[in-house]
Amino acid sequence: MRVRAHWAAVPAVLSLVLGASVAADAVRAPAQQARTPGAGGPYDLLIRGGHVIDPRGHVDGRRDLAVRDGKIAKVARSLAGARAKKTVDASGKYVTPGLIDLHAHLYNGHGDAYADGALSVPPDGFTFRSGVTTAVDAGSPGWRNFDAYKKDVIDRSETRVLAFLNIVGHGMAGGEKEQDLGDMKAEEAARVARAHPGVVIGIKTAHYEGKDWTPVERSVEAGEAADVPVMVDFGEDHPERPLDQLLTEKLRPGDLYTHAYSGLRGELGEDGRLNPGMREGRERGVLFDVGHGGGSFDWDVAVPAMKEGFEPDTISTDLHTGSMNAGMKDMPTVMSKFLTLGMPLKEVVEASTWKPAQAIGRKDLGHLSVGAPADVALFSLERGRFGYTDSFGERVDGERKLAPELTVRAGEVVWDLNGRAAKEWRP
Predict the structure, then answer these.
(1) Alpha carbons 318 and 307: distance in angstroms, whole number
(2) Which residues 6+ apart lie within 8 Å of 197 measured at CB?
(3) Please, which of 132, 263, 329, 405 could form a disulfide with 333 given CB 3.0 to 4.6 Å?
């Protein structure tokens, strides 16, 4: 009995000793953590050793980046002592804010047009693998069908989806519906835009074949009423409404002219030089968007325009089923084309992140400041010989290519080409 009593007392004694030890460790831990350089974790994600390009933060060099609770927690030259649930080695890679594609078509559905149709694509299948975390639909939905679009696309997508609202009530429904002046109602478009601030970030007019200014004027009226910018796809070229008049008289500072290098609407003069209206429009504050698409990017325009120093304000894809399998392909390919045209990498990143965020009034996006949404992209910059095709089948060869490696959306790894964030398997 005495022996049994002795051994029965041992667990109680051990519990007291271990409990005291654990309590002492708990007291010591904060002091030890405070003395550890770079501590402050555990972070949810730590991206180490990459070359960070964050134009808003004026960062262009090697940094470590930490994420906690879906936000950027810290960016520093070294977080050597930091702990994280998941760590990514970004050595030799470029780390940027998640890309913002300012011109895409995402209203995929059962019809045969861009609005609720087969010409648009479902966002998540085409964004993350390209480093894109925010995609802006450029006018696929109109004020009549925006609620359905929000329910079916925006609310169901992991990609952050925003929209330019088409001045046409039925949106890009194709054919005569996009020519119906009676369906272009500024007050209705403004009403829907005001009802969805920060999601409807602008008004869009596109594909108009007439000779009058009505779609542009009503779009600007809606933009004024809702305090949002207007994006213009100028449709067919007509001498009755010349491009220089659009850029110098009709559009306001902050409005966007997309398909800026298409060559379809007089972007170059007969002398092969930039239309003076393009430069005058820029001086007035009009912004120029690439909007590559399947038929809106021409080397014959882009090369001389860039030689004259006319770089885009924003780089975008005009993503749809026709463009993604043609010369455009994806956002990094379009960015790489402008690297090939001599645009510095930092400016290419800025035109794909911070500048579009500013253009649509979403200054919470497009940067890696502490507290910002943890939308991050990681790229390798490959060197070799790469062929880049315009919308008309002409190729220019380049020596550099941005290749997406990893994408983080709201702190979660959503695309990881080579398993950099994965735990290594061991038998």
Answers:
(1) 24
(2) none
(3) 329
What is the C-alpha to C-alpha distance for residues 140 and 146, in angstroms, rounded to an integer? 9
Q: Tell whether the torsion through CA atoms of 16, 20, 26 and 32 is positive or negative.
A: negative
Least confident of 17-21, 38-42, 200-204: 17-21
Cis omega (within 30 of 0) for bond into 42: yes
Task: Give the number of residues written for the chain.
Answer: 427
Non-local (6+) Cβ contacts of 68 within 8 A are 41, 43, 44, 411
The DSSP output letter for 50 is E
In this structure, what token pair is assigned to residue 311? 């770089």
Determine the straight-line distance between the first and last CA of the chain, rounded to whole angstroms: 50
Q: Is residue 115 predicted with pLDDT exceeding 50? A: yes
Question: DSSP string spanning 119-152?
Answer: TS--GGGTSGGGTEEEEEEEEEEETTTHHHHIII
* Token pair of 61 as six digits: 């060099």
CA distance linking residue 220 with residue 230, whole number of Å:
6
Q: What is the pLDDT of residues 343-358, one digit of tens each?
A: 999 999 999 999 999 9
Distance CA 412, CA 45 (A): 8
- Please check the confidence at residue 131 and state whether its pLDDT lies above 80: yes
Q: Answer for the pair 164, 219: CB distance below 8 angstroms, yes or no.
A: no
Angstrom distances, CA of residue 176 to CA of 183, 207, 380: 11, 10, 45
Reported as type and span, the H/E element at residue 193 is helix 186-195
Task: Determine the Cα–Cα distance for residues 392 and 221; give it in Å rounded to an integer.
Answer: 35
3-state secondary structure of 55: coil
CA distance 138 to 149: 13
Task: Determine if residue 330 is left, alpha or beta; phi over 0 gives left, psi from -120 to 50 gives alpha, anything else beta.
Answer: beta
Helices (H) and strands (E) in the chain, counts: 10, 17
Report field, pTM of the whole predicted structure over 0.85: yes
- Which residues in 130-158 are b (16+ Cβ under 10 Å) and which e? bbbbbbbbbbbbbbbbbeebbebbbeeee
